[in-house]
Write a structure and sequence with these properties.
By secondary structure, this protein is an alpha/beta fold. The chain has a domain at 5-32 and 82-147 and 277-295. It is built from 5 helices and 12 strands. Strands 1, 4, 9, 10 and 11 form a 5-stranded mixed β-sheet that branches. The protein is globular, with a radius of gyration of 25 Å. The two termini are 36 Å apart. The model has no long low-confidence stretch (mean pLDDT 87).
Length: 322
């Protein structure tokens, strides 16, 4: 419900008509979605998305007339589990009527149809849902079991990329790139180049983003300028490309505070949604002048093949937060 105590303290517990409107309600910017935009997205009706990783052994051999069979095709199961997430929000619209915010009230007996409700949904609730996912889930999330009857935290919703990288490094299925040292603003340009040299040669020619925090993205560009690279992109900035390879740096808001670098082809970063239309819809109920807003959907992220993920996680340059 709205916290209007400060409004009442400053402006009084009464409504005055002095020309105030929504333009006088200033709002801090909320973080937009970034991480899922670099991924391959798909919709599904499943809560566990099952697929297989196929591989084949060497087949080529010198010719001889005798039959000498060689090689095998192997399929291994893979899955990405989608997490069920929701928003439950309740509101007492009457709390704002006898205040400076009273212009958001209405004569309609149905409080759910007051301007306040639509205004809060569009300007605060939906933007905050996107910010919660970007800043607390996409990279930093660690899924936890719910406590019955207690509202959980965004970070508890699902395992984000940091947790996936940790698990992949721990079980040896991902490629840990070592030897580039602790990230440094004066050497980050060379360190990113050294990181991409750690990719297997067959993938060094594949377009990828080298994902990092926005702090390190800016440091990379600054160090690139300091090294004499003045080629300017169409936006009037030094470009983000890594020399001689089709890779470029990508700063993500979700990685704020992290020293980790990681990269994989876009097709290998999978973003799955079920009932994703509900991310922009709410069910509105009203009971005895109180309004209840709710929505829920399923979402999951993961890697198709761990073996084509490269990261500094767990090394001196990527063992945790700044």
């Amino acid at each position: 419900m709205p916290t209007v105590a400060d409004i009442i303290t400053e402006y009084g517990a009464y409504y005055e008509k002095s020309g105030q409107n929504k333009n006088r309600i200033l709002k801090i910017l909320t973080q937009k979605t970034e991480t899922t935009e670099i991924m391959s997205s798909a919709k599904t009706d499943e809560t566990i998305f099952k697929f297989a990783k196929g591989s084949v052994t060497s087949l080529l051999q010198p010719f001889q007339k005798a039959w000498t069979a060689k090689g095998a095709v192997t399929f291994k199961p893979r899955k990405i589990e989608l997490a069920h997430m929701k928003m439950d929000f309740e509101e007492w619209p009457d709390d704002i009527e006898a205040t400076w915010l009273g212009f958001l009230a209405d004569n309609n007996l149905k409080r759910s149809e007051w301007p306040l409700i639509r205004y809060m949904i569009e300007e605060y609730l939906f933007p905050q849902l996107r910010a919660d996912f970007e800043l607390n889930v996409a990279f930093k999330g660690v899924q936890k079991d719910v406590t019955p009857g207690v509202a959980g935290n965004p970070i508890d919703v699902l395992d984000g990329f940091q947790e996936l990288l940790r698990a992949g490094v721990a079980d040896g299925t991902m490629n840990q790139v070592t030897g580039i040292g602790t990230l440094d603003e004066n050497t980050i340009f060379d360190q990113v180049e050294a990181f991409t040299k750690g990719f297997s040669e067959i993938y060094q020619g594949v377009p990828m983003t080298v994902n990092m925090s926005k702090r390190w993205e800016r440091a990379y560009l600054t160090d690139k300028r300091a090294n004499g690279f003045y080629q300017i992109s169409g936006e009037g900035q030094i470009n983000k490309k890594v020399d001689f390879v089709p890779q470029e740096v990508k700063g993500l808001a979700s990685m704020a505070g992290s020293n980790v670098l990681w990269a994989t082809p876009k097709a290998n970063m999978v973003h799955l949604t079920k009932k994703d239309i509900n991310k922009n819809k709410v069910n509105i109920e009203e009971s005895k002048r109180q309004v209840f807003l709710m929505t829920d959907w399923w979402e999951g992220i993961g890697f198709g093949i761990n073996e084509i993920v490269w990261t500094t996680y767990g090394t001196g340059s990527g063992s945790g937060s700044v």
